[in-house]
Design a protein that fits this description.
about 300 residues; alpha+beta; 2 domains; 11-stranded antiparallel beta sheet; 4-stranded antiparallel beta sheet
Length: about 300
């Protein structure tokens, strides 16, 4: 007598396949939702990083504007001004156009420090002591170069004692003679003229860009360099534009493009970033976005 072998019936197989199908569909939906979640989170983080990058860059340079009368453009999507890029002191004078400067130090514990080393496209402001209390003389840089510290700032001057041996000093040559009252110990500040603006790139996206401009005379700026972005596009509507500059005097009164830069005391910057990826959330398209505003006081404004 033959024994029947155990096996699945057709109905049982159909039930198993149905269960596997339902489980697979559920797992697929779960994975798809997770993928959308992580994609949305990544897009949101990217937007937040862009906003933060813009505000950090602009806050440092706007806060370091030399004095308000060096601001050359007050626009809703751009600002052009002279920003401080370094400082030092006169170690010794060689002639009416040439001075020696102390060396820098890796720790920053020195009389000379640069965010960016100056060159002939920048200005040097040297403090001149006078009977009326003194003032800053503005000079275009004729040449700037590193030199052996013993030749431009010897240890006997007292301005290079805190720097380890081997660090070079600097020789600064001006394009015109400086006046009386400048001597060893006179503070020196280096400033660079540049323009920050919202601009549209070749890919159609909008970015925060920087142009370096000529030191003296009518504004002539070089090629724009992208710094961060993308952001929302430019709009005349201040509530939606990607990058907004607003200007105020000491009393909080809003300034326009025709206002005197001498009245400038505060700049408010708003950055708005939005992903170019539309994510389906609850049946509707959603673009991850972020925005932030920062108020920047002009540190070196005139009284």
């Amino acid at each position: 007598m033959r024994r029947a072998r155990a096996a699945f019936t057709l109905i049982e197989l159909a039930v198993v396949l149905a269960i596997v199908g339902v489980s697979g569909a559920a797992m697929g939906m779960l994975l798809l939702r997770q993928q959308r979640f992580y994609r949305g989170a990544n897009e949101l983080l990217h937007a937040r990083e862009g906003v933060r990058d813009a505000l950090e860059v602009l806050a440092g340079d706007i806060r370091g504007i030399a004095i308000p009368d060096t601001v050359r453009l007050l626009a809703d999507s751009a600002i052009e001004a002279y920003a401080t890029i370094g400082s030092s002191v006169v170690c010794q004078t060689f002639s009416a156009i040439q001075v020696g400067l102390p060396p820098t130090a890796p720790s920053g514990n020195a009389f000379t420090a640069f965010a960016t080393e100056p060159d002939t496209g920048d200005l040097a402001l040297i403090y001149r002591v006078a009977a009326d209390g003194g003032s800053w003389e503005r000079h275009r840089i004729g040449a700037f170069s590193a030199r052996a510290v013993a030749g431009v700032c010897p240890a006997s001057s007292g301005f290079a004692r805190e720097v380890a041996g081997g660090s070079p000093g600097f020789e600064l040559t001006l394009s015109a003679p400086f006046g009386p009252g400048i001597h060893p110990g006179s503070p020196v500040r280096f400033v660079r003229r540049g323009r920050y603006s919202l601009y549209r790139g070749s890919d159609g996206e909008w970015y925060l860009g920087y142009r370096r401009c000529n030191a003296i005379g009518p504004s002539t700026c070089g090629a724009i360099q992208p710094l961060s972005g993308p952001y929302r596009g430019y709009s005349r509507d201040p509530a939606v534009t990607g990058l907004l500059f607003e200007y105020f005097d000491p009393q909080g009164t809003r300034l326009d493009a025709a206002s005197s830069p001498l009245r400038l005391a505060r700049v408010d910057v708003t950055a708005r970033a939005e992903s170019n990826q539309r994510l389906p959330i609850e049946g509707r398209g959603f673009r991850p976005a972020d925005s932030a505003t920062i108020s920047i006081a002009i540190r070196n404004r005139l009284p």
